[in-house]
Structure formats: C-alpha cells, structure tokens
Design brief:
about 170 residues, alpha+beta, 5 strands, about 60% helix
Length: about 170
C-alpha cells in the first residue's frame, strides 16, 4: 500500500488539487448564481435548478481531468467516448426538444426580464391572449389565462417569440 502512494504521488496530488479546485469553483459559482437570483428576484426553485446544472457540468469536467491525470490512454478514452456519444446521440435525437427546453430554461434564468406574477402577451398568432406568469420551470413556463385556463408554454418557444410586458407584478407579494 505504501509503495502505491510512493509510486503515484504526483497523480494523487493532482487528483487532490482537481477535487479541491472543483469544490472551490463550485462554491464560488453557486454563490454567484444565488446572488444573481436574489438580486433579480428569481424564484428559489429555479436558482437551485440552475445550480444543479452547473454543479453537474463542473463535476464532469473534474472527472475528465482526473482521468487525464491518471494517464489513461487517450485512444482508449476516444473509443469509449465515441461509443457512448453514439448511443447518447441517438437517444438525444429523440429527445432534442427536452434538451432545448432545459438550455432555454438556463438562458431564461439569467436573461428573462419578467417575473412570476407579471402579465405578459406572447407575440404569436396561435396565442393572442394575455396571461399571468404563474411559474417558470426548467422545461416550460406556466401561464394563467383570463378565462382561468392554465397554459404550459415551452421555454424554447418563449425565446423564439416576442414577449410584451403588460403589467408588472406587485413587489409587495
């Protein structure tokens, strides 16, 4: 056991640095996302969701860096990754709209100027009515129409259409 630590001292140190760097960067990024969410008055659930996405991405980068530090043959990784990406590619082709909506949800978290409770109108010939934003989720936005119907509108379509603010929500809610 002692010889293992002596023989792989550099790899162990580099792995430790990668993990510590992951923890520090994740802490800073999560704090920043929370601060942006608080300053922009964004729902706490949306803030947590974006934080999870970012943590997953940082974890994936950390795992790749640790694998590279331990000197795994790049050609072997390339073969495995190409096989995995082929399977994932086929699966994602079938669910591309879900991935598009999740990506749109992250973009809306940082750049959507409207909040829950705002009355909006989406500039779409199929949706001419005004509605109130009830909830903004990872895949869609829930809108309450004047006749009481709850409309679930996909996030990717929300980014593609013009949105008009009719009335801001009360800040005393």
């Amino acid at each position: 056991m002692l010889t293992f630590f002596q023989n792989h001292q550099n790899e162990l140190l580099a792995s430790l640095v990668a993990v510590v760097l992951f923890v520090v960067v994740r802490f800073i990024v999560i704090k920043t996302v929370r601060r942006i969410g608080r300053m922009s008055d964004i729902n706490l659930v949306r803030t947590r969701l974006v934080s999870r996405y970012i943590s997953f991405g940082l974890g994936l980068i950390t795992i790749v860096s640790i694998v590279l530090v331990w000197g795994v043959n790049i050609r072997e990784i390339g073969l495995i990754m190409s096989s995995v990406f082929a399977v994932i590619g086929v699966a994602l082709f079938a669910t591309w709209s879900i991935l598009s909506n999740v990506t749109s949800g992250i973009i809306l978290f940082f750049y959507f100027p409207y909040k829950i409770g705002d009355r909006i109108r989406i500039q779409d010939k199929d949706f001419p009515e005004e509605a109130v934003i009830v909830d903004i989720q990872a895949f869609n936005i829930n809108l309450l129409k004047d006749n009481g119907e709850l409309l679930t509108y996909p996030n990717n379509l929300l980014l593609q259409k013009g949105v008009v603010l009719i009335k801001k929500a009360d800040s005393n809610r």
